[in-house]
Each structure stands twice: as structure tokens, then as C-alpha cells.
Amino acid sequence: MKYYAYENFKNDANALIQEIKEFNPQAIIGIARGGLTLSHALAEGLNIRDVQTIRTELYDAANKREELTICGRCSFGDVQRVLVVDDIADSGDTLKAVMNYLACGASEIEFKSATLFYKKTSVYEPHFWINEADDWIDFFWERDFKN
Amino acid sequence: MKYYAYENFKNDANALIQEIKEFNPQAIIGIARGGLTLSHALAEGLNIRDVQTIRTELYDAANKREELTICGRCSFGDVQRVLVVDDIADSGDTLKAVMNYLACGASEIEFKSATLFYKKTSVYEPHFWINEADDWIDFFWERDFKN
Q1: Do B48 and A55 touch, CB atoms closer than 8 A?
Q2: Which comes out higher in pLDDT, residue A67 or B75?
Q3: CATH for A2-65+80-143?
Q4: Fewer CB atoms inside 10 A, N or C side of chain A?
């Protein structure tokens, strides 16, 4: 398990901003909770005010396979390019489901995705990512704040 | 202007978590963009998965006074206690407008607010806050990420 400190995050988020800026997104959808701090950083760096969130829940229906449910509604007005943000594409299930869900609801909008980490075994590869993950990542936002 | 570094934030967010935990909120509404990183930290520390966002826009209607518009819809299911999060109550206009807006829409829910900073001249005082602001705060999320 590798501690991912704020200083690493700062460098990686700035590298992502350089990758993303040609896409020129007008809105950000952050996947809660993991994508929230990165959404904030990218929104500041890319000068985007419209930041919305979405989250997924795994329901373990009795005797059925687990089902991924998407919670939250996004509204885009006349926005044409939207960046979907999460911390990591690990299994890739969340991002894949969210990207499909968004594309179904708004076919005239171009959605691209960005993460800090991407695992080669993920079923989904984000458009923009910085690090390949080969270990469990101990993100500072999961470590530094305790009840 | 005072630089507010991640290390300060870490300490203050943990202090906020201690203040807030008796309220035991079930969902968080982060005010974008300023409240997003704090929303993430509080959600992790308080073990809250339901994080939503709202944002405000100032429209300068010709020859009229500026008008504060609230963008974003929140949905709460059977949630009873919601924490509204922003970085600072400065003029207090944003938080006051958001709290009024939320209270109108859902009278059966208890909303409380939390910020890192509070200015004595604010028209609204958050339920939970840590520092009194007497200078302009240069938050790390506004300084560290550049296009």
C-alpha cells in the first residue's frame, strides 16, 4: 500500500490539466467521493465553475448479482464538452457505468474522463490519466481525516 | 494575503470533524467550487457517502442590482440531517442564500453549515467554523493548480 501525499497529487493534477486543456471542457462531473478533491483542483486549473457530482451505489440484491446504481442528476444547459473525474480506474466498473449513463442521457454532449490512476486490468480506460496503478493507493483524503 | 496550505487545512478539517460529529449528518452539500475539497475531507472523516454539490452565479442584470442564482438540484431520499459546506463565510451572501433555498425546499430536513473561515462582517454565521478571517485567504486549491 502506497501513501499518495498532497505533493504528489499537486504535481499529477497539474500534469492532468496540461493534458486536458485542449479538450476545453465547460463542466465537470466529479464521481463522489473519490473524484471530489481532483474535481476541485481541475476546476480551478481549467477555470471551470460548473462542477456537479454523481455517485454510485452497489446494491447486493438477494441471490442476484450486485447491481451498480447511479445516484444524482446532472443538468447541462447548453454545455457541449464535459469532463468526468474520478481518482482511479481500478476495476473500471464505476467509470464505465457512469460514462454509459451520461452518454444515453445527452447524445449531443461530448464526455471525456480523467483519473489520476489507471490499472491495466480495468474494463475502462479513461481518456486522460497520469499513473499506472500496480498497488493499492492510500490516497491522502482517505488517510488524513479521521472521526 | 495569507497562504492557506494543505497542512493547515488538514488540521482544521479534523477539528471541524470533531465539532460536527454530534450533529451526525447523513449527506453533504458542497458549495462549488470553494467547498469541494473540504466536502471530500469531511465526507471521509464523517463516513458520509452522499455528497452533492450546488453552486451560485451572480447575474448582473442591466441597471438592476446583482442577483444571486442557485444552480443545481439536490435530492435527499429519507435523509434527515444535511451538512452544507463552504470554504469561507465572507460576505455570507452565498451561504445565506443557499441555506434559505434548501430550507424552503425541504422543511422536514435539518440543515447545518460548516466553513473553515468566518468573517465577523458576514451576514450569516455558519453553525460550525474554525478560524476567524481578518485577511484575504489564499487557499491552496486556488494557488496550486495552474493552466
Answers
A1: no
A2: B75
A3: 3.40.50.2020
A4: N
